[in-house]
Design brief:
With 1322 residues, this protein is α+β, with helices and mostly antiparallel strands. It is 21% helix and 23% strand. The protein contains 19 helices and 94 strands. The protein is flat. The C terminus is likely disordered. This is TNFR-Cys domain-containing protein. InterPro entries: Growth_fac_rcpt_cys_sf, Pectin_lyase_fold/virulence, TNFR/NGFR_Cys_rich_reg, TRP_C. Keywords: Disulfide bond, Membrane, Transmembrane, Transmembrane helix.
Length: 1322
């Protein structure tokens, strides 16, 4: 334990055992350090044992001004280097007392001696013995207890609530009943001392008094709160309740008294209830009787009288009600019941009287109705009947055949075969019974009649059977039997003998009433005992006795079987001698034996039957006219002659039944070759579609191959569905030609595309990185490949996008397949990865949303990376522009696809690019806004960005080509300006606009319409004209490729328009096949030319730069020609010792360089030499040996063989068109000159300065003058004011010897050949 600090006060430590302390340098049990002199530390009854330390094993007091007192404190087994028990040092003071602690009594027990250490400036006083507690004890005052552990009295204790300290002061006791105490109270207080309080719960040990609240009073005798009785009240806190004043009352435990309530009146100090028969209003001093009409009071304390209800009246004492007697009534609120009127009655308690009842059907009146008794009726017995009413008895059923059952309203009549049953002595007819055998009754008779003689009947018969004609009565069977064959009975016979035999020649069947005598047209046939018909073509007028009696018809006459006469043949028939019968005339048809007529589908025309004409029909046989088809279906016809039904009337070819009784002309897309089409089954041509079978709006499909046509419910090719068959079913996805393919095949088809992409990219990387023995030549090839490839790509991308921009474009199938393969150039990842197979739910909106931000992000990352890493700034910026160049048409097409909607004839309006999206949805406004935003970002924004970037650098872009290439400031824009001449620095903006017009803008025109084809053709023709007029590319080969590529697109449009308009041949015909081959081959030729010009054609006159192209063509010795030339010119001509031209170095390919030296002009007395300083760019200096370092190995060997040993050998040179001039540039020593256009023969070369002549305007030499090369001399005598003509014969220039040039005199004005013609493109 450690005690240290700066505070003052007393620290008493009692009863603590400090044991086993150690592991410290001082005070193993306790150390007292740095305490002020005012502090007091006292150890009382403590023990320190087994402690150890370096100094003071038990107690260490050091640098302490406190006084330390030890009372009854023992030490045992402590160890230390100095002072096993106590160590005192540095002004510390320790006193060991031999007495008990203060306030203790007794004597401590002495122990062993202390081992101590005391420094010179410290004090250890008192005994040197160890003392323990011994007999020391502590007596605590009342209210305090001994805390043995701390060897001191505890704090004064407090009794809890409800208790007080006992008299001894050492405990608590419970407060008696009626008293209470608060916590810590030494005595209990009485609750009775405060009015309205009692001890809590009325038990002993109460912690508080209970307050008797409102309505209660404190009963101090029982120490409880009790309720106030009636007529008294309490507001709480009282020992007695207050009595209510007169005229008031209340309930038990009331807090106040109230005036008497309604129904009570004040009586003294209370309110008494009104008695029955009376009532009391609020505030009344007496009860009033209920003596109003119908009033009563049936209870005590009523505030108002009650009114007698209907059917009741008040009792005489008005204390209740009683019911009205029978014969009386009350409607309520009456003192007395009213009597019922005459003919009325009522029951007891009736609210009104009712009319006396009458007896019902089948009843009679026993007693009449009275006021208090209803009419009494009785039931009619069997044999009587009653219609009810006030009859006193039922009527007897005494009519013929009448009878009745009990309670009958009318008498019934016995039916036929029955008679009434008579019962009792009074002869009542109470039922019916059947007539007996051989009797009968026709009904309505009291008795049955016996059958007449010879008659018979069964029981219940309505008549007797009297044998009729042809029958006789058979007694044993009591029935009539048929008279035998060949006998008869006219009126029936009484027995078999009454059946008479037939006379001779007569016959009869069993049961006959007469014998047959054969009639006209018949004869008697004995074997059958019957009359038979006379045969055909015979007759019998009165009947014949046998077959011979049938007389044959005369010649030319006929008769049918059973005829009584012969006749001539009927109308439309003629007699046939061969068959001896009447037969139908030719064209007529027999319908029966005597009728010939025109059959169905024919009508009578003159004397013959003719087939109904087309557009007519006749359904029945006869000679009636044929009916017109127009009467049932307007403009309908029959397919053939002789139609027999109105159903044969159908619409002719080129029309269809509109379902409204009219034939309508077929719409475009409907089959015009089928006969009898109706709207429901009209045949749709392949490539067309309609919403449903009831639709007349037939539309051309965006992709004709997707629509198979026909007259089925589906017009779509397998895998296609939806409007225009433009959607794919589940498990199918679109290919680049917008045809749906099964996902099983499409995924495999995508693999070659990606392989092709990888191959192309790898080839480009290989070409750009390939090392060459001639790096300069390789760089030229790469540049030509890049610039030319860009042109090829742009044209091919436009061509490949045509199937998606113009879905119904008409092209040969082989061309379409080629375009399908080339569609990868559109760089549409959604087609390249078959997105419909793995994310079929992605619609066009979501594709646009995925594509546009992705492109922005990629380009943004590249630009940001270029800004952060300066080393790659140019490369990153160029890459961003290139990526945007590649994908811009595809992205623009995707953006413009967000706008056009297509309204179908079912009322729906769908997005033209995705017929799963309705333009009537609520989010349409958002997507239109997003589309316009992207239009601003991509087509408008990108073109504007291109234009701004180029415009801002136009001054630098107009410089010569080589100067531009060396300018690092415009190098990041290399992709935009490198292929073009300086004067056409802006051409990339035009080219990009052309691409966007051919993809995005063209897609907004009605897909597949002729207007779309015309618009596409006009766009290309316009661009073709601009291209031919400007020739914007540096390299004329690039101009040629661009012209051919644009021309190829124009040809494709023209071919499509021919196929679309003329329909001369189908897409898979032979002619289409040949046309397709030609189109494909023409495209291949352009690509081959591009590759050949790029890799296999060396620099020549077609090289385009801002200077004069000079090339060593032959190098052959021409000594004879040279000598001849010198003689002809008289020493004149052009010779080059070392000359200066701004020219393309044919050995290095860098434009704008110079061959530096001087020109010299001699002849006709004029000698002038102009020395020109070299330009600031790289310099090509003479002598000619310097040329060798720019030559290839083959050229070098050839040159050394021909020229090294013969310095005067001649070189041939060529001049070519090299492009537009840059802005003028000159210095103090000379000016540059360059060629802007022209070829070899008769072409115009423009120089910034004519080094052979001073200018005529006082300026520097010859600015803006020209040199014209011609095949013949044409030199003016006087030079022009601003332009001079420098004519040099071609053959002389070709043979110009090495040496000082010999220049003819300047031309004059008379020799001026006029303005030069505009040269054709090289």
């Amino acid at each position: 334990m450690a005690i240290e600090g700066t505070g003052s006060g007393t620290i008493r430590i009692s009863g603590i055992h400090f044991k086993d302390g150690g592991g410290v340098s001082m005070g193993g049990g306790m150390r007292i350090l740095s305490t002020p002199s005012s502090a007091l530390v006292s150890l009382e009854g403590c023990k320190l044992s087994s402690n150890q330390a370096g100094n003071g094993g038990a107690i260490y007091a050091y640098n302490s001004g406190a006084t330390v007192n030890l009372y009854s404190t023992s030490f045992d087994g402590n160890t230390a280097n100095n002072g096993d028990d106590i160590y005192v040092s540095s002004i510390a003071s320790v006193t060991v007392h031999s007495t008990c602690p203060p306030d203790w009594s007794g004597t401590p027990a002495a122990g062993s001696d202390l081992d101590t250490y005391v420094s010179s400036n410290s004090i250890l006083s008192g005994t040197t013995k160890s003392f323990d507690i011994g007999t020391c004890s502590l007596s605590c005052p009342a209210g305090r207890s001994l805390r043995l552990h701390f060897m001191q009295c505890g704090k004064v204790f407090k009794c809890p609530a409800g208790q007080k300290m006992n008299d001894a002061g050492d405990g608590c006791e419970v407060c008696p009943n009626g008293k209470f105490s608060n916590p810590g109270s030494t005595s209990c207080s009485s609750c009775d001392e405060t009015p309205g309080y009692v001890s809590l719960s009325g038990e002993s040990g109460a912690a508080a008094c209970e307050y008797c609240g409102p309505g209660f009073y404190a009963d101090q005798a029982s120490h409880t709160c009790k309720e106030c009785e009636i007529d008294s009240y309490s507001v709480g806190g009282v020992n007695e309740c207050t009595s209510c004043p007169s005229g008031t009352d209340n309930a038990v435990a009331s807090t106040s008294c109230s005036p008497c309530s309604p129904g009570t009146i004040p009586t003294g100090t209370s309110c008494d209830q009104c008695e029955k028969g009376k009532y009391g209003e609020f505030g009344a001093t007496s009860c009033a009787p209920c003596d109003g009409d119908g009033q009563y009071a049936d209870g005590l304390g009523l505030a108002a009288c009650k009114t007698a209800p209907a059917g009741e009246k008040p009792t005489s004492d008005r204390q209740g009600v009683e019911s009205c007697h029978a014969g009386k009534y009350s409607t309520g609120g009456n003192d007395e019941c009213s009597e019922c009127g005459s003919g009325e009655t009522s029951d007891a308690g009736a609210a009104g009287c009712r009319t006396c009842a009458t007896c019902g059907l089948g009843k009679f009146q026993i007693a009449e109705c009275t006021a208090d008794a209803e009419t009494q009726c009785g039931d009619c017995i069997a044999g009587k009947a009653s219609m009810g009413g006030a009859v006193s008895d039922c009527n007897f059923c005494d009519g013929p055949g009448e009878y009745s059952e009990p309670m009958a309203r009318v008498c019934k009549t016995a039916p036929a075969g029955y008679k009434p049953t008579v019962t009792g002595d009074d002869g009542l007819k109470a039922g019916i019974e059947m007539c007996l055998k051989n009797t009968f009754s026709i009904g309505a008779a009291d008795d049955c009649t016996n059958c007449a003689e010879g008659g018979h009947s069964n029981p219940g018969e309505s008549s007797c059977d009297q044998c009729l004609t042809g029958k006789y009565y058979d007694e044993p069977t009591n029935s009539c039997q048929l008279c035998p064959k060949n006998t008869f009975s006219i009126s029936g016979a009484t027995d078999i003998n009454g059946c008479e035999d037939c006379p001779a020649g007569g016959h009869s069947q069993p049961g006959s009433g007469y014998c047959d005598q054969c009639l006209t047209g018949k004869y008697y046939d004995e074997p059958t005992n019957s009359c038979q018909l006379c045969p055909k073509n015979t007759f019998s007028i009165t009947g014949a006795t046998d077959s011979n009696g049938c007389t044959p018809c005369a010649t030319g006459e006929y008769s049918l079987e059973g005829s009584g006469y012969c006749q001539t043949c009927p109308q439309h028939m003629e007699y046939d001698e061969t068959t001896a019968n009447c037969v139908c005339l030719a064209s007529f048809t027999r319908v029966d034996d005597i009728t010939c007529t025109c059959k169905a589908g024919e009508t009578l025309m003159g004397t013959t039957c003719e087939l109904c004409e087309k557009a007519k029909w006749k359904a029945e046989d006869g000679v009636t006219s044929c009916s017109l088809c127009s009467s049932t279906l307007e403009d309908s016809i029959t397919e053939d002659f002789g139609s027999t039904s109105a159903k044969d009337c159908k619409c002719p070819k080129g029309t269809y039944d509109d379902g409204k009784g009219k034939c309508e002309v077929v719409k475009d897309g409907m089959d015009d070759t089928a006969f009898g089409m109706c709207l429901e089954n009209v045949t749709i041509d392949p490539g067309f579609w309609r919403v449903n079978s009831d639709s007349t709006d037939v539309r051309e499909c965006h992709v004709s191959e997707a629509c198979t046509g026909g007259n089925s419910t589906s017009y779509c090719r397998e895998g296609h569905t939806g409007p225009y068959c433009d959607l794919c079913v589940n498990g199918w996805t679109k290919d680049p030609l917008m045809l749906c393919k099964s996902c099983e095949n499409s995924i495999v088809d995508v693999i070659p595309w990606w392989m092709l992409v990888a191959a192309v990219v790898g080839s480009l990387i290989y070409i750009s990185k390939k090392k060459s023995r001639n790096p300069e030549e390789h760089r030229k090839k790469v540049k030509r490949f890049k610039n030319g490839g860009k042109i090829i790509f742009a044209g091919a991308q436009i061509t490949a996008s045509l199937p998606s921009v113009i879905p119904t474009i008409d092209l040969p199938n082989n061309v379409k397949e080629t375009l399908k393969a080339a569609s990868i150039l559109n760089i549409d990842v959604f087609n390249m990865v078959s997105v419909g197979c793995w994310a079929a739910s992605i619609n066009y909106y979501e594709k646009a949303l995925l594509m546009t931000p992705t492109i922005i992000a990629i380009c943004g990352v590249l630009i940001l990376a270029g800004r952060l890493v300066k080393k790659y700034r140019s490369r990153c910026f160029t890459s961003a522009i290139a990526i945007m160049y590649l994908v811009l048409p595809t992205v623009t097409t995707k953006i413009f696809g967000l706008f056009p909607c297509d309204e179908l004839d079912d009322g729906s309006e769908m997005l033209r690019k995705d017929y799963t999206i309705s333009c009537q949805d609520g989010d349409r406004d958002f997507w239109e806004a997003y589309g316009w935003l992207m239009v601003g970002v991509f087509p408008v924004g990108v073109i504007s960005m291109y234009g701004f970037l180029l415009w801002s650098k136009r001054a630098k872009l107009k410089k010569p080509v080589e100067q531009r290439l060396e300018d690092e400031e415009i190098t990041p824009l290399l992709f935009l300006w490198e292929p073009y001449k300086p004067v056409f620095w802006y051409w990339e903006v035009i080219e990009t606009g052309r691409r966007l017009m051919m993809t995005g803008v063209l897609s907004t025109i009605e897909p597949g319409s002729f207007s779309q084809l015309v618009a596409g053709l006009m766009m290309n023709i316009l661009y073709f004209g601009l291209l031919c007029l400007a020739c914007p590319y540096n390299d004329n080969r690039d101009n040629s490729i661009a012209v051919l590529s644009t021309l190829q697109i124009i040809v494709i449009f023209i071919a499509s328009m021919l196929m679309h308009v003329s329909k001369l041949f189908s897409e898979d015909s032979y002619d289409a096949e040949v046309m397709g081959v030609l189109l494909i081959v023409s495209q291949a030729i352009i690509i081959v030319l591009f590759l050949a010009w790029t890799f296999y054609q060396k620099d020549n006159m077609s090289t385009s730069s801002n200077g004069m192209a000079i090339k060593n063509l032959s190098g052959r010795k021409k000594k004879k020609e040279e000598k001849k030339s010198d003689e002809e010119e008289g020493g004149g001509g052009v010779s080059m010792k070392s000359s200066v031209f701004e020219a393309t170095n044919p050995m290095s390919g860098k434009g704008g360089e110079q061959i530096s030296g001087s020109f010299r002009q001699e002849g006709k007395g004029v000698k002038e030499e102009i020395n020109l300083a070299p330009a600031k760019k790289s310099t090509w200096l003479g002598p000619m040996e310097r040329i060798k370092k720019y030559m290839s190995e083959r050229q070098r060997r050839s040159y050394e063989q021909q020229y090294d040993k013969k310095p005067k050998a001649k070189l041939d040179f060529s001049l070519s068109d090299v492009g537009e001039p840059p802005p003028p540039r000159r210095d103090k020593d000379g000016v540059e000159m360059k060629v802007i256009s022209g070829g070899w023969d008769g072409s115009l070369l423009s120089m910034k300065a004519n080094p052979l002549q001073e200018g005529r305007d006082g300026g520097r030499p010859g600015e803006g003058e020209t040199i014209k090369l011609a095949n013949k001399k044409n030199i003016s005598k006087e030079p022009p004011k601003r332009k001079s003509i420098f004519a040099i014969p071609k053959d002389k220039l070709e043979e110009a010897p090495i040496g000082p040039p010999k220049i003819p005199p300047p031309p004059t004005a008379e020799d001026d050949i006029g303005p030069p013609p505009f040269p054709p493109p090289s």
